[in-house]
Amino acid sequence: MVSAQDAIRLVTGTWEPELFEDLPIGSLETRTLDAMSRNQISEPDIATRAGLTVRELITALGRLQLLGLVAQGDRGWRKLT
Question: What is this structure's pTM?
Fold first, then answer.
């Protein structure tokens, strides 16, 4: 299991991204995306750039990953869109 989508697929037996498409993106997610690029960046660097606590950042990254907007790599996180 390497992603939030994998976890959902494991629990439900399927991954249906359309279930998440209409969810609004909140201010934490917006600030997180604004602090990121398509190059990988570490969580502490994202938190600093976004002005978020680590807890806020982890919440935002989890939601953004479920929405398919970010991905985690070996050296950090990157934007997919």
Answer: 0.73
Residue 71 bridge partners (DSSP): 78
- Give the C-alpha separation, 9 to 3, whole Å: 10
Per-residue pLDDT tens over the stretch 51-72: 999 999 999 999 999 888 999 9
SS3 call for 44: helix
| Pure H helices in 1-81 | 4-12, 18-21, 27-34, 43-50, 54-66
**Sequence spans of domains, the chain:** 4-79
* Percent of the chain clearing pLDDT 90 (strictly above): 62
| 63 vs 81: CA distance, rounded Å | 15
* 4-79 maps to CATH 1.10.10.10: yes
Alpha-carbon dihedral sign for residues 43, 77, 12, 20: positive
